[in-house]
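Researcher: Go.
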Amino acid sequence: MQRTLSLLIIVLLLPMSACAARGPATFSAGRSLVTASSSPGNVYLAGFSVVNTAAVSGDLAVIGGSVVMAAPVSGDELLVAGSVGSRSTVLGDLRMVGGSVSNEGAVAGDLVALGFSVNNSGRTAGSTFIVAANATLSGGAAGPVIIYGNNISLAGDFSGNIKIVATGRLSIAEGTTIRGRLSYEAPEEAVISTSATILGGVDYTNASYLPDAGTSRMLAILSIGFFVFAHILGVLILASILAGLFPRLAEEIVERAYTGRPRSILLTMLLGFAILVASPVLIILLALTFVGIGSSLMLCILYALLIVLAFLYAGILIGGMLVRRFAKRGVVLWHDGTLGMLALSLIALVPVVGLFVVLIFSLFSAGALLQIFFHFAFPHEDHTEELL
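Model: Structure:
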């Protein structure tokens, strides 16, 4: 693969090396560039929108957002842009790279085109190499043709051999003549018009690009693994941020769980359970009334935020309890949140039991957060505001 990419880069840069070997050169750049006067030697253009209507006596190299070449080029032509159009004769090689690529002029040398959509209606005297999702050749070609793409359409007079690798459909239009041999790989046989002529014969290789059962299973496993990894990484980062920004709040929740009485811990869990169960019912009832639609929307946002915070602080709670137990440290640091969330994420991977443990810690965190927020809104203790 690396060798193929290297060869492709060398092929695309061949006109640039040829340009360096010639005489005087013209350089022009601008946001919107229009050239209408001819210049001796090679021409280099760059801009968001480039239009050239002047003949070029040497090589031409253009890079931009939208490129249109409407004048003949005596040397090689290299066009790189989002939208590329060449509408006149090129006496050397033509190389085009872009999203939408089209050529309407004759090419005396070789043609190389890379893009999402490639449409070549001009005749190429040399070889033709195209890589595109959708490729159309309606002007034929005098030399050999190689195309890699999805949906490919051929029309015109082709003098040489044609090799095609298609992941979709190959179609050959009416009146098409292929004097060489047609070799193609595709999931299904080509749609060949009855009036088309293929003198050199046809070689067809059935190639299905759909993965088999084993490959599909492996891709599914990899996708699930990537999703789990991204999820764990995301919650690790969020837990670390919360533990670092609000250490007093995290320490208060850990204190309630680590030193609290069993009855107090149970009541906190029941409070979290009641809120998580009762809130959806209240939201639905408010949404049924015209006046309560806005309130139900606000409560829905707060409910979702509470669920996320409860899960994140459940991980922070585990991390804080671990450092209290083993490191004998009461202060919660940001990496304690990372440690606890990592432990909680690994516990969650255990079937049935893991989800039950995550639910228990999340319910306690939800209840503790509600108590702290309630005391913050209706303060009865002086230190409550310091937690937030």
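Model: Confidence is low (pLDDT under 50) at residues 1-22.
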